[in-house]
Amino acid sequence: MKRIRKYALLVLSLFAVGMVANDVYAQMRLHRLMIEKLQAAQKLLEGIALGRYDQIEKQSDELIRISKTAEWLANKNPRYEQFSNEFSRAAETIVRKAKAKNLDGATLAYFDLTMSCVRCHQYVREVRDARGLGMPGTDALAVLTPPAHATKAK
Length: 154
Ligand code: HEC
Hints:
Helix content is about 80%, strand content about 0%. The chain is mainly α. It has one domain (about 20-150): Cytochrome c/b562 (Four Helix Bundle (Hemerythrin (Met), subunit A)). The chain binds heme C (HEC). Heme C binds next to helix 1, helix 4 and helix 5.
C-alpha cells in the first residue's frame, strides 16, 4: 500500500514538472513568434516605403501565417480575438492592394494594421494591470502574459 502511494506521488510530481515545462516552452514559442511578427511588420514598412510590391506581399503573408499559428490563437478571449481579426484582416487587405499595385491603399491598410498592434497591446497591458481583481478573461490571458517580474524591466 505504501509503495503504491509512493508511485502515485512520483507520477504526480512528474506530471507537475511536465506541466510547468510545457508552460515555459509555450512562453518561449510565443516570444519567438512576437519577434517574428515585429520583423515582418518592419520589413513590410520597408516594402511599402520603397514600393516593392513583392516584398509587401511576402511580409503580409508572413503576418497572416503568424496570426494562424496555434500559439497566436491560444487565447480565446473575445476582445483578443477581435484585435486578432482586425490584424489579419488588415494584412489581407495589404496583400490585395499590393496585388492591385495600389500603394496608397496598402499604406492605409498598414495604418490599420499598426492600430491593431497598438490596441491589442493596450488591452493586454490593461488586463495585466487588473490581474487579481477578478476581471473576466484574466485566466485566458495568463497563457500569453509572462509573470510581472519578467516584464518589469522593460
Ligand atoms: C491580437 C493581439 C496582438 C496583436 C494584434 C499584436 N500583438 Fe504583439 N503581442 C501580443 C501579446 C499577447 C504579446 C505578449 C505581451 C507580453 O506578454 O508582454 C505581444 C508582444 C509583442 C512584442 C514584444 C515581444 C517580446 O516579448 O519582447 C512585440 C515587439 C510585438 N508584440 C509586436 C507587434 C507588432 C509589430 C504588431 C502589429 C504588426 C503586433 N505586435 C500585434 C499580442 C498582439
